[in-house]
């Protein structure tokens, strides 16, 4: 048994450490598949519809409806929310302020005089556009349906409208409608729940009045419901390796698949000439690429200093016909807890677990780069950031310098597989390549020795 002299235990310990750490990395990366409702980065995130019954007279009710985006980083972008519900009886909406129903519907049972605003059994309500006539506004209305996230702009996360409705003909009092929707892909709303009535003060808190009844409807997001295919992918590079790791092929779709439309360089789609429907999102057209994603995020490990290192992030818009206003990017990297400086983007940590602040949100600076323009020369936004080399964890080995997750506008981006990350020249990759065969060999040796 001369083999024993090489002391296999040392190697087993060394190599299994490598294997275990790559398993941990793999586990981290694979356990973050699209969220199915629960989002660890924003565990309490929801959109709440608050329904306040302000007055209830025989035959008529006054209602104030608020839609509030309680999500840290997801926002509602154009074409905005479109709230719907089902009346339980034959209620109609006589008048509305701060929003409007998309259809008036069949009001023929009302003869003479002024007709109701909406007689639909299942009305759909949309926000007014900014600059709506003053007499149609309410405070906090008229944002064209766009709601900011809590972090990005806490002053614009909600919208309010008021309406007067008739009661159902053979009912007295008020009946809460059912089956709420907000008309944004990916959101499902729960049943209305009666909660403690909202209180209002018109004199700064000396006297409070309260709603006759308040109901909450909670709506939750699921990326899987929004779209079964991703909308964004990540490419990687580093100063220490000339390889640029592209987005994985077919990240979002594959060229040539039925239904996968893309526009070759130099072409413009014929749809440009068609009329736009204001309440509906225009179909998206992307530039042809091997990943077919409308958004590509590139993470470049740019430079290493004695105590710091520098990362450059570039977001490319590959949509031909879509600008992203108020875009945001969420990144997860352990070194974000020692972030020193972010250039030309806003940054806010998403500090969900107290000490562990390895996740942060980036967004554009107003009037400078808060609009990510459609594909073309200026269809990108970029930032650089400076991070402190945390002595207890920093390394360029094993792809540590690359992000663990990236989300664009709240949707998970597809990352390249970890074994393709740009590597440090020599040494680093040797261990990983050897590990499996070596460990098997050594295990076999150990079994032999034990016998
Ligand atoms: C919705 O978000 C608000 C604000 O974070 C929170 O108070 C409320 O409990 C949440 N609702 C649900 C059902 O999670
Ligand atoms: C709500 O939706 C359910 C399922 O689609 C339907 O059966 C029910 O009638 C709806 N409620 C009202 C008041 O229309
Ligand atoms: C109104 O009366 C009709 C007939 O009695 C009944 O079927 C219907 O459910 C009533 N409407 C409501 C909202 O209760
Ligand atoms: C409109 O509603 C009335 C009753 O309210 C009904 O008789 C009529 O058929 C409806 N018209 C259409 C086009 O549905
Ligand atoms: C109902 O919604 C309001 C926000 O509109 C929130 O402050 C309140 O906590 C909610 N109540 C419940 C019980 O979820
Ligand atoms: C995007 O913004 C640019 C510059 O403001 C504008 O020229 C272009 O028409 C916009 N595209 C769309 C699809 O709105
Ligand atoms: C991360 O959290 C630590 C401790 O809570 C804090 O000292 C540090 O400033 C935070 N870093 C960032 C970039 O937010
Ligand atoms: C750069 O990284 C790639 C991908 O991991 C690897 O195949 C290549 O060997 C690396 N180049 C050098 C010079 O180490």
UniProtKB/TrEMBL annotation:
Q: State the superkingdom.
A: Eukaryota
* UniProt keyword list: Glycoprotein, GPI-anchor, Lipoprotein, Membrane, Signal, Transmembrane, Transmembrane helix
Q: Please tell me whether the keyword Phosphoprotein is annotated for this protein.
A: no
Where in this chain does the record put each COBRA C-terminal domain?
Answer: 231-422
Its placement in the membrane is given as:
Lipid-anchor; GPI-anchor
| InterPro entries, A to Z | COB_C, COBRA_pln
Entry's family note: Belongs to the COBRA family.
Q: What is this protein called?
A: COBRA-like protein
């Amino acid at each position: 048994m001369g083999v024993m002299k090489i002391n296999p235990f040392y190697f087993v310990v060394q190599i299994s450490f490598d294997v275990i750490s790559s398993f941990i990395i793999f586990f981290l990366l694979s356990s973050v598949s699209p969220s199915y409702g629960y989002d660890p980065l924003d565990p309490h995130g929801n959109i709440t519809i608050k329904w306040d019954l302000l007055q209830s007279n025989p035959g008529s009710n006054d209602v104030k409806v608020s839609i509030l985006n309680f999500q840290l980083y997801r926002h509602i972008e154009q074409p905005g929310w479109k709230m719907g519900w089902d009346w339980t009886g034959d209620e109609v909406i006589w008048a509305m302020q701060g929003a409007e129903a998309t259809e008036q519907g069949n009001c023929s049972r009302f003869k003479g005089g002024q007709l109701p605003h909406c007689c639909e059994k299942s009305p759909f309500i949309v926000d007014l556009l900014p600059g709506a006539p003053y007499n149609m506004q309410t405070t906090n209305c008229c944002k064209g349906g766009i709601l900011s996230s809590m972090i990005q702009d806490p002053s614009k996360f909600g919208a309010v409208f008021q309406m007067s409705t008739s009661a159902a003909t053979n009912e007295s009092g008020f009946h809460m409608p059912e089956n709420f929707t907000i008309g944004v892909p990916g959101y499902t709303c729960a049943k209305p729940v009666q909660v403690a009535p909202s209180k209002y003060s018109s004199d700064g808190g000396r006297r409070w009045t309260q709603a006759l009844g308040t109901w909450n409807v909670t709506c939750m997001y699921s990326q899987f419901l929004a779209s079964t295919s991703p909308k964004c992918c990540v490419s990687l590079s580093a100063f220490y390796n000339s390889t640029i790791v592209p987005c994985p092929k077919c990240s979002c779709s594959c060229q040539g698949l039925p239904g996968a439309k893309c526009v070759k360089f130099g072409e413009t789609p014929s749809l440009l000439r068609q009329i736009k429907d204001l309440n509906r999102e225009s179909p998206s057209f992307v530039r042809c690429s091997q990943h077919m994603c409308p958004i590509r995020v590139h993470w470049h490990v740019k430079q290493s200093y004695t105590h710091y290192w520098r990362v450059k992030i570039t977001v490319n818009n590959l949509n031909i016909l879509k600008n992203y206003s108020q875009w945001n990017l969420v990144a997860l990297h352990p070194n974000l807890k020692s972030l020193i400086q972010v250039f030309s983007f806003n940054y806010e940590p998403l500090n969900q677990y107290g000490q562990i602040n390895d996740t942060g949100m980036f967004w554009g600076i107003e009037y400078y780069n808060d609009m990510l323009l459609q594909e073309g020369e200026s269809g990108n936004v970029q930032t650089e950031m400076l991070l402190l080399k945390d002595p207890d964890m920093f390394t360029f080995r094993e792809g540590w310098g690359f992000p663990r997750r990236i989300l664009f506008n709240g949707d998970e981006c597809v990352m390249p597989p970890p074994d393709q990350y740009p590597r440090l020249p020599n040494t680093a990759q040797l261990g990983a390549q050897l590990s499996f065969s070596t460990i098997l060999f050594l295990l076999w040796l150990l079994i032999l020795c034990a016998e």
